[in-house]
Design goal:
Helices cover 45% and strands 15% of the residues. It has helices at 3-22, 47-50, 57-64, 84-93, 110-115, 126-138, 140-146, and strands at residues 29-33, 39-44, 75-78, 97-100, 119-122. β3, α4 and β4 (97-100) form a beta-alpha-beta unit. The chain binds zinc ion.
């Protein structure tokens, strides 16, 4: 698949990230697409909104997509490289294609995913980086909480 297709998918995740930011949450969004590129579900980090540390962009999209018979042809798109928790989800369910908006702010588990044979496409999106950079500058303590770093 060409990057233009992935960029279009990333836009869905970016929209979720912006909704999250408007809600006062951490601007990280995700979306899942089937083998034909059809949107299954999208979601966003709602740690702050729901007071639930388990709701990351990826897990939110995953839950909203409901039960899937197979994940091997599903593409997980996320505005930020997946953390270890979400890397575990991708590994557990055998998702083989992951598109990340960026990995400079946070690398997460993308090297491990690549070692497992998962195709990781890093679009290095300035929009994604800027969204998060603004949030981190404004609320560093919430960011540290999200990535599991003790202040
Ligand atoms: Zn995560």
């Amino acid at each position: 698949m060409d990057n233009a297709k992935y960029e279009a998918m990333l836009k869905v995740a970016i929209t979720e990230a912006r909704i999250g930011l408007a809600e006062g949450g951490i601007p990280i969004g995700a979306a899942m697409f089937d083998r034909d590129g059809k949107l299954l579900a999208s979601g966003r980090n709602r740690r702050v909104q729901q007071d639930d540390p388990s709701i990351h962009g990826e897990t939110d999209a995953f839950r909203r997509a409901g039960r899937q018979r197979s994940y091997r042809d599903i593409t997980m798109v996320t505005t930020l490289a997946p953390c270890w928790y979400c890397t575990g989800l991708i590994r557990q369910f055998g998702i083989r294609t992951v598109v990340v908006g960026e990995s400079r702010t946070f690398t997460g588990g993308i090297d491990s995913l690549r070692e497992l044979g998962v195709t990781v496409v890093d679009l290095d999106s300035e929009i994604c980086r800027d969204l998060l950079a603004q949030f981190i500058a404004a609320k560093p303590e919430v960011w540290n909480e999200d990535i599991g770093v003790d202040a």
